[in-house]
Amino acid sequence: MRSTVKLLGFVLTALFPVWLAEAQAPQLQRDISMKMALAIVEGASERCATDGYTVSVVVLGRAGDLVAALRGDGTKPHMLEFARLKAYTADTNPRDQTSLQFKKSSEERPYLKQIPGIVFIGGGVPIKWGDDVIGAVGVSGAPGEEKDEACALAGIAKVADALSARPRR
């Protein structure tokens, strides 16, 4: 028994520096670049303009931080904030776009409606690189949440090639 305890102590002593070094290593995370965010904003606003809608578009990074925002000509000031809230909801609950989250939250997760800053209405879509959510886009101002969402998806489609590239580890 005593030799087992000594062996275990030796193994732990030998592995502790390796574990400590790994614990101190910086995290490497993917995030949205400014160039990608601008392309998403452009794609979303172009789609809505083609459909005859003036909208505001917000792109957030993986931590919910603002990367890019555009308040469309003639849109109401609150549309920019509403677009941010839609993006924030999609970024912090990234399983689905916000229109699907609303349906699920009513049935499966009603407690989510109590979180400040969360809105369950279409127009917010998570941005994924592989399985990794790296941010979200929110669109507000089109006459109907399904139209906002279509524009958000068009913005993501504009960078689809970059998002489908095999992530480097």
Radius of gyration: 21 Å
The string of secondary-structure elements, in order, is HHEEHHEEHH
- Low-confidence parts: none
Mean pLDDT: 83
Known CATH architecture:
2-Layer Sandwich
Q: Tell me the count of domains.
A: 1
Roughly what percent helix? 40-55%
User: What general form does the structure show?
Assistant: elongated
Oligomer: single chain
Number of helices: 6
Task: Give a written overview of the molecule.
The chain has 169 residues and is α+β, with helices and mostly antiparallel strands. It has a single domain, classed as Beta-Lactamase (2-Layer Sandwich). Helix content is 50%, strand content 16%. It contains 6 helices and 4 strands; from the N terminus they run H-H-E-E-H-H-E-E-H-H. It has helices at residues 2-24, 34-50, 77-92, 98-107, 145-157, 160-164, and strands at 56-61, 66-71, 124-129, 132-140. The chain has a 4-stranded antiparallel beta sheet with strand order 2-1-4-3. A hairpin with a 4-residue loop joins strand 1 (56-61) and strand 2 (66-71). Helix 2 crosses helix 5 (145-157). The longest helix has 23 residues, at 2-24. The radius of gyration is 21 Å and the shape is elongated. The chain starts with a helix and ends in a 5-residue tail after the last helix. The model has no long low-confidence stretch (mean pLDDT 83).
